[in-house]
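Q: Here's a chain of 380 amino acids. Please give me its 3D structure as C-alpha cells.
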Amino acid sequence: MSVDPVALTAALVRCPSVTPVEGGALVLLEQLLSKAGFTCTRVDRGDTSNLFARWGARGANKSFGFNGHTDVVPVGDRSAWTQDPFGAAIVDGWMYGRGTTDMKSGVAAFVAAAVDFVQDTPPDGAVIIAITGDEEGEATDGTVALLDWMATQGERMTHCLVGEPTCPDRLGEMMKIGRRGSMTAQITATGVQGHSAYPHRAKNPLHAMVRLLDGLASHPLDQGTDHFDASTLAITTIDCGNPANNVIPARATATVNIRFNDAHSGASLTAWLQAQAADVQMETGVTLDLAIKISGESFLTPPGDLSALIARAIQAETGRTPELSTTGGTSDARFVKDHCPVVEFGLVGRTMHQVDERVEIAQITALKSIYTRILRDYFA
C-alpha cells in the first residue's frame, strides 16, 4: 500500500492534539504502522502519550530512527483564522491548520516514506519511528520517556533524523546539525521598603536589580564558535508591582533567558550568574536570589557521514545544497543526541505557531521524496 502524505497530514491535522491531549493522532499512526508490519508500543508516561514503532529486528546492526511530535500549540484567537484550525482545508495549493508546519506534515511525510520503503525494498536492518505528544510542552515525559523506555528494552537507533521545520524560505536550503543551549534565570531582589524622600532609610531592590541586569546584558558572552553564532542573553521581564510613586518597594523580580553555544555549559553559566549576583549583593546590601532552569545544553553532531548522506538526498531532490546550521530554538534533538548521532531536516517553518498556520501541498510530497531517498541511501 502506498501512503499519500498529503492525506495523512490532513488526517493528523484534524486530530485536535493540543499539548498534552493526544487527540487521536497517535492512535491513527499506530493503526497505519501496525497494518504495514511495524511493531508498535505505546510508551505513555504521566499525562503524555507517546508511540514507538519498529520495522525489522530488535538489535539490528543498522537502525535508522525518526523522531517527531504530533502535539501542537493552542490556536489562540480562533476568530482570527480564515480557516478552521483543525479542518485541514486546502486553498490555492496550501493546507491550513494548526500543526500543518510544526510538525504533522513532517511526521506524515516520514511515515509515508517508511511504509512504502519497507514494503517495496525491505532493508537489511530496522526502521524506528519515535513520536511524542509532549514536544510543545515541558518535554519531560515525551521523547525523554521514549528514550528511557528504549534503554530498558534494548532498543537502539544507530542514527536519527528529527523532522522539525528547518528551512527559512525554501525547502532544502537548511538542515540542523546542532542546537544552542537554553537556560532561564529568575532573579529576586529583596531589600527594605521605605519612603522615596528618605532613600537612606531603605534598601532599594530596583537599584540593585538594574545594576545586575546592566552588567549581565552589557557583557558579551563570546564571539561565536566554529559552528555557532555568538551566545545571547535577553532580559525578558522586570517586575515589582509597585502602584505608588513615593514608596521604595521591598522586592523586585526579573527574568533573563540565555541561548548559548558550545563555548559554555549550563553549569558554567550558572556559576557566572551567581558570581555576578554575589558581587552586586555585596555592593548594595540587597539580597539577590536566583532560580535557574536549564532547558537543554548546546550540542553538535560534527559534519560527517550522516549529514553528508542527508545533504546529498536533499540536493538530489531539490537541487539545493543545504546549509549546515545550528540556529533557532531548542528541539527534542537535544535529548536524542545522548542516544545517537542526530540531524534535523524538515519543511519551511515560516508560519509555525502563527494564526493561519499552513503548508504548501507540494512541499509535503517533496519531503516524502527526500525522506524516501534518505532511507534508500542509508540502507544501500
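Q: Can you summarize the key feature?
A: The two ends are 22 Å apart (CA to CA).
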